Batch of 2 targets.
Target 1
Amino acid sequence: MRIMFLGAPGSGKGTQAKFICERFRIPQISTGDMLRAAIAEGNELGKRVKAIMEAGELVPDAVILELVRQRIAQPDCAGGFLLDGFPRTLAQAEGLENMGVSLDWVIELEVPPEEIVKRLSGRWIHPGSGRVYHLIYHPPLENLKDDLTKEPLIQRDDDKEETVRRRLEVYQRQTAPLVGFYRQLAERGKVRFATISGVGGVEEIRDRIFQVLESVLTIPGSA
């Protein structure tokens, strides 16, 4: 089972990816993991990645694609894999297609933007322990104070509403066009594409995804 996950920040991809990887016994592959692994290995490609990142520059698509090619060639990917957070741009998606990497499913996890803003901007943490609260779903006993220590909670910059809205704008500009790209591939029979609602309980969303993925387990075009 070779799967790609699409969805905005806060749509729940990370949570659902773990369920999928456990069910189908496949590795979860993310760009961040690949970059860190390449640097740790210290090979020629890893040295290039390290130099680029230390210079504060964006890693070029060609380098990311080569990392993906090397990663999915490893033995643990023989039975499939889940791409999470890659591709991020249309150029990366086209590069993956040109590499001849075939996918079984592209799953778009759809959550309304205002729901995502509510999910992310309501998160507050206790810096000393890392305990996480949510003003709507898991509020502290006292307003903006940790339940145990009564110390003030803080909100990470990434969770502030203005930051969340900027992240969603970047997603719409850079990554949302991938939905159209993969829908076109699906119309040509090269992949299966499904949009699944990411609103509801975690297990409810999980079961929706499983129902889709388990409906057909053969590779598109195979007998």
Target 2
Amino acid sequence: MSRRYDPAALVAFATSCAQSAGLPPDRARVIAEILVEGDLMGHDTHGLAQLTPYLESLAAGGMTAEGEPELLSSTPVLESWDGRKLPGPWLTRRAIEKACAFAKTFGLGAISIARSHHIGCLAAYGPPVAERGLMLVLACSDPSTASVAPWGGTQRIITPNPLAAAWPTPEGPVILDVSMSITTNGMTARRRAEGTRFPGQWLLDGQGNPTDDPKAFWADPPGTLLPLGGLEAGHKGFALGLLVEALTSGLAGHGRAAGATGWGASVFVLVLDPAKFGGAERFLAETGWMAQAVRNNPPRPGFDAPRLPGDGAMARRAKALAEGVTLHPSIPPALAKLAERYGVAVP
């Protein structure tokens, strides 16, 4: 039986490690909360698996511990920031709070962030916004690296470029977090380490041939991740990936054209207040109708019932909060090394 961990103890552990590594208490705490949320929701390549790389980046100077983001431009409903490689979860949560304030006054608020550090699991940011009756759209890319080729091409030019969103219904939030590639860098690295293949041809090798072998990604010439939609409809996924590039690095004004370097992210945050549009009650009537239409839809063979985006993640989260969270087998040994390094007790 898999060991289960108390989520609060994991947050306290990660906070202590991050503080010992040199992060201020508030930033350490936010990083810990967002990473543990990733594990609670089942996105375990972007949960505590990222804690060691984050702290190694901090030690190497790739993450900035202190200071504030630089305000580059502003209007009554938006701001553009230079994140100065400050901790991504702290920057993103702060940007969401600012956008929420704009939205409550004007109906919408947006923040673009250039030169953020990695922001973790995007789905983790959604539930608190939806609980306030607001709608969140969140996207990010990493302009310093690439892993996805254009449709019909063989050389990497963009990253998986996830797009997340959250909005309320009368019965709970809809939460989506979708990468614009069929798999991710983190999952590809994990499968290579495990010696396992993908369940389908989710990559191209360096010559552009479909493969299920994650090792092809690191071959010479290197392979690429197929866009969302795979071999049949990857042109759609790549088009969406370009949209994310425009929303993130494009609007932030700093990305691939500027020669971005170092692990990080360009981030786009948009918050909408339905009350300022057609009205909160009418919004919930529409989202509630759609939620019922999805859940009451007759299931096809092999499925118990259709479900809304986020139903699985929120169910896993509720179970983990009640019974403890199960970590991927690769994570506890990494946490044990951090505990020894920083003199912090393992949860």
